[in-house]
Design a protein that fits this description.
mainly beta; 1 helix; 5 strands; 6% helix
């Protein structure tokens, strides 16, 4: 799993696995899901990140595991 914050495009991308992306769908304004050949979600992109999370400092992202 990979998490990338791209400040140049103001987006956050979460890649769940490395399978090829076959299709993408905008499920909500500025939220795009990427699907593989088995129709499983393999990526999530959130656009306009600075508007959704004002004051976000990418270096302070926290990761939690159950």
């Amino acid at each position: 799993m990979k998490l990338k914050v791209d400040q140049a495009t103001d987006a956050l991308y979460l890649r769940l696995d490395e399978s090829p992306i076959i299709e993408s769908e905008e499920v909500s304004p500025g939220v795009v899901l990427d699907y593989n050949a088995q129709n499983q979600v393999v990526g999530v992109e959130i656009l306009h990140l600075s508007r959704r999370a004002p004051g976000l400092n990418p270096s302070e992202l926290q990761f939690q595991t159950a």
